[in-house]
Design a protein that fits this description.
Bound molecules: zinc ion
Radius of gyration: 13 Å
Distance between the termini: 33 Å
CATH topology of one domain: first zn-finger domain of poly(adp-ribose) polymerase-1
CATH architecture of one domain: 2-Layer Sandwich
Strand order of the largest sheet: 1-4-5
């Protein structure tokens, strides 16, 4: 269940759910609040990770109710860490 989302500017270090890397102070990041699997959660992501995440749904790699494990993907890419041991060079 989706509740709210917002773009914020980091005042302290946060952790990106998508890639597991730090979101450093001064960086803009995306905050999503909602219910998944019956649990209320807040998910924070880098800007480029949010775009990559949305493209996974758009391309039907993930279905609407699919969640991600913490740090499952490389930052700003649609490559799972399980599939590649090194961070791929982002296209574009
Ligand atoms: Zn990230």
């Amino acid at each position: 269940m989706f509740l709210s989302e917002a773009w914020r500017k980091a005042r302290k270090t946060h952790r990106c759910w998508y890639c597991g890397e730090d979101i450093v102070p001064g960086e803009r990041y995306h905050v999503w609040n909602g219910m998944t699997d019956g649990q209320f959660g807040t998910t924070k992501t880098h800007r480029e990770c949010n775009e990559a995440w949305q493209s996974l749904y758009r391309d039907r790699i993930l279905m609407d109710d699919d969640g991600l494990d913490f740090g499952e993907y490389w930052r700003g890419t649609t490559v799972r860490k399980d599939d590649s041991e090194t961070r791929p060079v982002a296209a574009g």
